[in-house]
Specification:
The chain has four helices and ten strands; from the N terminus they run E-E-E-E-E-E-H-E-H-E-E-E-H-H. The strands form two sheets. A seven-stranded mixed sheet has the order 6-5-4-7-10-9-8, covered by helices on one side. It has a three-stranded antiparallel sheet with strand order 1-2-3, with no helix packed on it. A hairpin with a 2-residue loop joins strand 2 (18-22) and strand 3 (25-30). The chain is α+β, with helices and mostly antiparallel strands and 232 residues long. The protein has three domains: 1-31, no CATH class; 51-167, Ribonuclease H-like superfamily/Ribonuclease H (Nucleotidyltransferase, domain 5); 186-232, no CATH class.
């Protein structure tokens, strides 16, 4: 008994499994299991340069977030898909995924920054809609790897691996562009973007429509901004 004063609460730990009861009801059952030690992973001596970067932009309408753009870069080519060219965001994402379901991208890793906690919400539903085998690896409610294996032709299969680049380099894209000395991620008026003005052209929106930028950055953006025209 765990408490000599309480005769309704006792434990039986003479054998395995052990039991704990209260008021005649089993509340805990403990089983000891022997497990093997984890084996070290062999180092890959070959650096895999076959990877793709992907980024999703969203808007919030009535408290619901939905994708409006998805861009893909394979190291040479840049492809962007815009909601204005599709019936809905699901069809836009499907078209984007189909664009990388090619033999030339076989065994490529697709990196999305913050995939585990954000982009996966939109992409897993889309990836699951294909006639493909999906195999996620999850640890501590975090997606470590999302394997996407599909049949291409004549019983030939292609596998893509969706992973979170933030787990490898936990920093914002703005900071990373500065550290690696590459083109800085541009600012964007996320508060201004709505479904009704998704094809907006004109002057730069007000400073209040931007998040997490300084007034100096905003003024420099306004000075250097070149409005898009249909002739471009």
């Amino acid at each position: 008994m765990l408490d000599k004063e309480d005769l309704t609460y006792f434990a039986s730990k003479l054998t395995t499994p052990s039991y704990i009861y209260t008021n005649g009801n089993l509340i805990i059952k403990e089983i000891e299991r022997k497990s093997k030690y984890l084996k070290p992973i062999k180092k890959n001596l070959i650096l895999n340069k076959d990877f793709i970067t992907m980024d999703i932009e969203t808007i919030t309408t009535n408290g619901i977030m939905s994708p409006v753009c998805i861009s893909i870069y394979d190291g040479i080519n840049v492809s962007s898909f815009y909601l204005s060219n599709f019936e809905n965001s699901d069809k836009m994402l499907i078209a984007a995924i189909e664009s990388i379901m090619k033999p030339c991208y076989k065994d490529s890793v697709v990196y999305l920054h913050n995939f585990s906690y954000f982009d996966a919400v939109f992409l897993i539903k889309i990836l699951s809609s294909f006639n493909a085998k999906i195999s996620p690896i999850i640890r501590d409610n975090c997606i470590i790897d999302f394997r996407f294996k599909f049949k291409y032709s004549n019983n030939k299969f292609i596998t893509l691996y969706f992973r979170d680049s933030y787990l490898l380099i936990p920093s914002s894209l703005s900071n990373l562009s500065r550290v690696f000395k590459v083109l800085k991620k541009d600012i964007f008026p996320y508060n201004f973007l709505k479904l009704e003005n998704i094809n907006y052209t004109g002057n730069v929106p007000l400073f209040e429509e931007f998040d997490n930028i300084s007034l100096e950055d905003y003024n420099n953006y306004v000075i250097n901004y070149k409005p898009h025209t249909d002739k471009e």
